[in-house]
Design brief:
Blueprint (H helix, E strand, L loop, with lengths): L1 E2 L14 E3 L5 E3 H4 L4 E6 L5 H19 L2 E7 L11 H11 L5 E3 L4 H6 L3 E2 L1 E5 L5 E3 L17 H12 L11 E3 L6
Parallel strand pairs: 4-5, 5-6
Antiparallel strand pairs: 1-10, 2-3, 4-8, 7-10, 8-9
Helix pairs in contact: 2-5
Length: 183
């Protein structure tokens, strides 16, 4: 099932978090915050949308990290119902794609709720003061990469780093719904 995210208000502050990484260490928002901005993305291992763009996410993240923009990925799916997203599979997925950023487990799903994340992938671009400036997609790819797609997320984060403002036009990310635990 594909889901289009709702858009939280631009300018809202990034919610704090403290989540375990793949080695059990606690990572906080301040630990990943970049001097020129911060990209927080919600992804998972099994989503065909994420799988299609995982290498492009890594490529763009390497560029952003080199430019002083912090990057982190958070997995919030109910991995008991979706074992392909379990922590051991997260480690394998991160290693396979050589993630240059922390990949965190949001087991309680409270962080996804605080960010109003609804799908994977879901991208949140913040300025140096942690104000939301971008809530859009990586590029025009869906479950099949678009080879020469404009690098919308990369361009947006570079603009945020340079000006403190995101692009006027932002196309929401599209992907699989976050797999929420039963109430």
């Amino acid at each position: 099932m594909t889901t289009l995210p709702t858009l939280p208000e631009l300018g809202s502050r990034a919610p704090e978090f403290a989540l375990p990484d793949l080695h059990g260490r606690t990572v906080r928002l301040d630990d990943v915050r970049g001097e020129h901005g911060t990209l927080i993305m919600f992804i998972c291992n099994h989503c065909p949308y994420v799988r299609a763009i995982a290498d492009r996410i890594v490529e763009d993240s390497r560029a952003l990290l080199a430019e002083g923009i912090g990057v982190v990925a958070i997995m919030s799916n109910d991995y008991r119902a979706y074992p392909a997203d379990a922590p051991d599979r997260m480690r394998a997925f991160a290693a396979e794609h050589r993630f240059p950023f922390p990949y965190l487990l949001d087991e309680t799903q409270m962080v996804a709720r605080a960010y109003e994340a609804v799908c994977t992938p879901d991208f949140f671009g913040y300025d140096a003061d942690l104000a939301l400036r971008y809530r859009g997609r990586l590029d025009a790819s869906r479950t099949t990469p678009v080879p020469d797609a404009r690098r919308e997320l990369l361009e947006a984060m570079r603009r945020i780093a340079a000006t403190g403002e995101g692009p006027e036009e932002q196309v929401p990310s599209m992907g699989c719904s976050i797999k929420w635990r039963a109430a």
